[in-house]
Amino acid sequence: MVTISFAILLTCLIGLIAIIDTFIYQSSFLYPLLTILRINPGTNKWMVYFGLGIGLISSLIVDYRLKKEKGLNKNN
Amino acid sequence: MKNNLVEKVSLFQLFILIYIFELGSAVVVGIGGEAKQDAWIAECIGTVCGVGITGFYVYILKKLPGKNLFEILIFTFGKWIGRAVIFLYIVYFFYIAARVLRDFCELMSSTIFEKTPIEVIALTMMMVIVYMIYLGLEVMGRTSEIFIPYIFSFALIIGLLVFLTGEIEFNNLLPIFGEGFGPILKVVFPGFITFPYGEMIAFTLIIPYATKFANAGKTSMIAVLASGITLVYTMILQLTTLGPEMRERANFPTLSAAREISLLDFIERVDLVVVFIVMFGIIVKVSVFFFGGLKGLEIIFNRPYRTMVVPMGAIIAFITIVISENYAEHIQEGVKVVPMYLHIPFQFLFPLTLLPFLIYKIKKQQKEKQQ
């Protein structure tokens, strides 16, 4: 559930930013979307991608632990 | 729901949280530049409106004591529509949290951490916020309690030092109403009522957890008034020190004003004190929005919000960076798009739509009970 919420929220927020950029620059939706996601050489954007990766891993771990907890509760 | 922890904040903590929240990024970015030398008058009007807006939010909360805005939404509109609106609020809260954090990152990377990548600042700040929120609302309240004397005294000292340096020129405030009342009204609506006062919507998720809920409304309104007075004070400081034109051009006017301080060839670079005030303001502001979003997730996914703190924190850090290419774009979005298309619907339209339905639902429930 945490992973699902992670994916949904990330998609919605990126979508919102792309919509705002589309509105401001009067461009197509795809162009700002690609600009948001692209890692240009020489930039440090990879750092936040790394942070995002940690977030994803932690959400997977939380989900696994919650599932395990649920299984234990069922057995008891 | 697996949420056995009942978190409470004292009225004093609530007061401090609101006070710092309202100052937050409003102190950093120069707001109300269009009103020129009358910006402080616009801020005064904005403060009065802000107290009214807070009163309106508290009025909604008092209809169902002990329930936060999201629980009220579920009560009024039912599970499905309620959850859909809550989800929109979550996106809004996280987006605004990222915007506020970006304000701070820009300030840091252009003043004291010039060679540090903005991504490092965003990630580091988010780690602190994640840790604080993970420990809970009470910890956030206590942290604010510890820092408030510094914030308050530093704010006063900066004004005093600028005055002693001889940089204050009260003529910069003249002529009063030089361009009439039009520019002032333009700045207040929708500028000041949405930022920072309308952002009090995030507190509809904290006020119900005050120890004495009956007095929370009064406390909140007094806090908004106090923060408004402080904002008027900083605005007068900026205007008298920099003048309306320079203030409008400056990215961070308070910082520019503090840079003018030079006393006895010894007291200099006091702008770092402003950075400290802003840093704490931003931490509180981002935390409140983050907490609001997490509370929504708790209701939608039926999981304790603490399980989602780290992943959502990572998303906010990511969004902070990709939200705009540069500071100019960030400000342009903040002026052109965010107030009209995000702030007004979430701060006013949804609560105003909610209220009649809520009153109807409560009356209906009372009638059913009587029968």
Structural key phrases:
heterodimer; A: mainly alpha; B: about 375 residues; mainly alpha; Endospore germination permease (chain B); transmembrane helix (chain B); transport (chain B); germination (chain B)
Description:
The complex is a heterodimer of chains A (76) and B (371). The two termini of chain A are 23 Å apart. Chain A is mostly helical and 76 residues long. Chain A has helices at 2-25, 30-37, 45-75. Chain A is built from three helices and no strands. Helix content of chain A is 83%, strand content 0%. Chain B has 13 helices and no strands. Chain B has helices at residues 11-23, 39-63, 69-111, 118-135, 137-165, 182-197, 213-242, 244-249, 253-258, 271-301, 309-322, 327-336, 338-370. Chain B has one domain. With 371 residues, chain B is mostly helical. Chain B: Pfam families: Spore_permease.
Total helical segments of chain B = 13
Q: What is the percentage of strand-forming residues of chain B?
A: under 5%
Please write the string of helix (H) and strand (E) elements of chain A: HHH
**On the 0-100 scale, what is the average pLDDT of chain A?**
91
Give the % helix of chain A: over 70%
Short description:
The complex is a heterodimer of chains A (76) and B (371). Chain A is an all-alpha fold and 76 residues long. Helices cover 83% and strands 0% of the residues of chain A.
Topology summary:
The complex is a heterodimer of chains A (76) and B (371).
Chain A: H1 2-25, H2 30-37, H3 45-75
Helix pairs in contact in A: 1-2
Chain B: H1 11-23, H2 39-63, H3 69-111, H4 118-135, H5 137-165, H6 182-197, H7 213-242, H8 244-249, H9 253-258, H10 271-301, H11 309-322, H12 327-336, H13 338-370
Helix pairs in contact in B: 1-5, 1-7, 1-10, 2-6, 2-7, 3-4, 3-10, 3-11, 3-13, 4-10, 4-11, 5-10, 6-13
Keywords (chain A): Membrane, Transmembrane, Transmembrane helix
Transmembrane segments (chain A): 7-26, 46-66
Subcellular location (chain B): Membrane
